[in-house]
């Protein structure tokens, strides 16, 4: 091969290499630009907030009764309510309302005779004070006479309520009952009651279990001297509902003379009210 043809071949090779290099460069820059564009798109996608469609919250039904539409209906099961409350909720029935009541507390050490847990509560025993003095005076007299006797509650004629023994403590309000009444009422003297201040009153009245199994309520009233004021009876209604709610069950209601025959608690004019309390837990 001559020198001229050799040079021409070299030039041709160089031209081809230059063209290949140009093509490769174009492809490389194109790929880089595309990669850069994808990278920028990814960055934008990462920084933009994601919009998620959610199902709108459904509107609650409008009230169908005469309530003001701005009023918020609230309901809750009272503390201690038993399974009966669950059943009424499941059936859609309105639970019985427990009235709000004002109670003045005046606890005295001399009135407390031991623990009385819920499992020992069986009865509500109703009494008359057989005097016209108000609750504050009665409590002071109980505390000063040394007998260590008191009821858990006193209901004044004006409907005000005083409490002098907590519901989870024993009060000496019922005393000794007829012999055989412990068995009749399904109770016993189990040692929880310290029995301080108590004195046996004879063979016919030997049983002493009621105090440790009951709540005592005194009403300011003198037997034979008129009816019980409506305010007092309304307060007693509310107090019984309060006690029921506290324990979560209904205690049997009796008066004092049912436990110990021969005494006057409650008076004859209370007889119809007592029947109503025992069946409907209200005075009317």
Descriptive labels:
284 residues, alpha/beta, 6-stranded mixed β-sheet, 7 helices, 6 strands, globular, disordered N terminus
Please outline what is shown here:
The termini are far apart.
Structural notes for this entry:
By secondary structure, this protein is of the alpha/beta class. It has helices at 3-47, 83-91, 135-144, 181-184, 230-247, 256-259, 271-280, and strands at 103-105, 123-128, 153-155, 161-163, 214-219, 252-255. Strands 1-4-3-5-2-6 form a six-stranded mixed beta sheet. A hairpin with a 5-residue loop joins strand 3 (153-155) and strand 4 (161-163).
Order of helices and strands: HHEEHEEHEHEHH
Q: β content, as a range?
A: 5-15%
What percent of the residues sit in helical stretches (DSSP H or I)?
25-40%
What would you report as the Rg, rounded to the nearest angstrom? Answer: 43 Å
Please list the strands of the largest sheet in the order they lie side by side. Answer: 1-4-3-5-2-6
Mean pLDDT: 77
Structural class: alpha/beta
Count of helical stretches: 7
What's the end-to-end separation, in Å?
A: 137 Å
What summary fits the major beta sheet? 6 strands, mixed
Poorly predicted segments: 1-10, 26-91
The general outline is globular
How many E-type strands? Answer: 6
């Amino acid at each position: 091969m001559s020198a001229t043809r050799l040079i021409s071949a070299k030039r041709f090779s160089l031209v081809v290499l230059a063209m290949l290099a140009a093509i490769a460069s174009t492809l490389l820059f194109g790929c880089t630009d595309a990669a850069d564009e994808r990278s920028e798109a990814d960055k934008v996608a990462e920084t933009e907030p994601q919009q998620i469609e959610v199902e709108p919250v459904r509107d609650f039904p409008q009230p169908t009764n005469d309530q003001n539409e701005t009023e918020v209906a609230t309901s809750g099961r009272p503390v201690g309510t038993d399974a009966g409350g669950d059943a009424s909720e499941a059936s859609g029935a309105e639970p019985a309302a427990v009235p709000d009541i004002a109670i003045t507390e005046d606890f005295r050490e001399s009135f407390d005779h031991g623990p009385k847990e819920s499992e020992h509560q069986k009865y509500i025993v109703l009494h008359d004070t057989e005097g016209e003095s108000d609750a504050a005076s009665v409590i002071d007299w109980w505390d000063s006479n040394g007998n260590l006797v008191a009821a858990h509650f006193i209901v004044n004629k004006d409907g005000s309520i005083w409490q002098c023994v907590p519901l989870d403590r024993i009060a000496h309000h019922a005393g000794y009952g007829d012999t055989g009444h412990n068995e009749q009422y399904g109770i016993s003297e189990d040692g929880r009651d310290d029995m301080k201040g108590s004195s046996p009153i004879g063979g016919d009245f030997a049983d002493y279990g009621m105090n440790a199994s009951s709540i005592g309520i005194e009403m300011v009233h003198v037997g034979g001297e008129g009816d019980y004021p409506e305010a007092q009876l309304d307060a007693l209604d509310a107090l019984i509902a309060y006690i029921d709610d506290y324990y979560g069950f209904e205690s049997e209601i009796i008066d004092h003379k049912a436990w110990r025959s021969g005494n006057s608690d409650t008076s004859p004019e209370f007889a119809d009210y007592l029947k109503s309390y025992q069946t409907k837990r209200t005075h009317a």
